Amino acid sequence: MVLKLHGSSLATCTRRVAVILHEKQVPYELIEVNWAVGEHKSAAWKQYQPFGQIPYLDDDGFILFESRAIAKYIATKYASSGTPLLPSKNDLQTLALIDQGASIENNNFNPSAEGLTWELMFKKLKGEETDPKAVENFENTLQAKMEGFEAVLSRQKYIGGNELTYVDFLFCPYGEAITALGYDYLTNETKYPHVAHWWKEISSRDSWQAVKDGAKGLPA
């Protein structure tokens, strides 16, 4: 059975999963949620995603939600397909670095990058007013984190160690968004050369280019 990814083609978390599926060359069908009628908030949807969020994955009846968990699941189950996104060594320390990298993204990047995207992009799309104070707080917080990212990537090639893993792709949706909004946190080669080199490699991969403007299924 082909995997079914239930979500919105434009949603950041749907694209976070889609880039992994494309990188691994795993066939899947995108089942588009009907935002106009609030399908993702319906009782039927919440049978599969109890928090009323997107996306969720249906793997022949096995239901999994939370985009980071789905990304790791795909990288693990389809380890031999497409690009290897787990380390070639499975020792404790190597695996711990991957978990550390996932935590770095979730705690030190996503909150501020998502906040900026919400305030400066999503609110405008909804006709709501941007909160300048919130924007300032998100900017200051993320700016303060950048030295940490530069330090990590000066010691290792990728966020989860010295090999490309699924963790690097977790940054793609909001990294693309804040860059499009004019922030140079990930592209400033003078202040953060290691970050800029890493981001240029990740964001230019065919898998992300295929879904950055909207997730789409991958035929078998």
UniProtKB/TrEMBL annotation:
Keywords in alphabetical order: Transferase
Domain annotation GST C-terminal: ranges: 91-220
Enzyme class: transferase
Gene Ontology cellular component terms for the protein in this record: cytoplasm
Pfam families associated with the record: GST_C (PF00043), GST_N (PF02798)
Gene3D superfamilies: 1.20.1050.10, Glutaredoxin
Keyword check for Mitochondrion: no
GO biological process entries: glutathione metabolic process
Domain GST N-terminal span(s) in chain numbering: 1-82
EC number: 2.5.1.18
Claim: tRNA processing is one of the keywords in the record: no
PANTHER family hit by this protein: GLUTATHIONE S-TRANSFERASE RHO (PTHR43900)
Protein name per the record: glutathione transferase
Species: Serendipita indica (strain DSM 11827) (Root endophyte fungus)
